[in-house]
Protein: VOC family protein
Amino acid sequence: MAIARNPTTVLDCPDPVALATFYGALLEWKVNLHEDQPYGNWTDVSDVTGRRYCFQHVENYTPPVWPDQDVPQQMHIDVDVDDLDEAEAAVLALGATKHAYQPGETFRVFLDPAGHPFCLCRD
Structure:
């Protein structure tokens, strides 16, 4: 029997609502504001199966600097896409930034609006 269930990924950021809105649009997941939390301190996005990503406000947030390790990324999100060019245009329109360092041909590295690296991966 498992000790725990429903693992959740939590990303620190300066604006949880803005970051949840970004990932909600990227994944077509529902943005959930939590009334029991001070507005803007915690929110999440979820799909119909219960998978979710959470976003937590951090004062004086410093985004990761990748690939340098002065401020390491510590984690990142990969998402599968059918067409890299179409997906790139869509995430840029949502507010992502394409990273200058692109080490592969089957994936592309971007920064979300809070500076977390994420990859679009051709499946």
Observations:
- The chain is about 20% helix and 30% strand.
- Residues 11 and 115 are 11 Å apart (CA to CA).
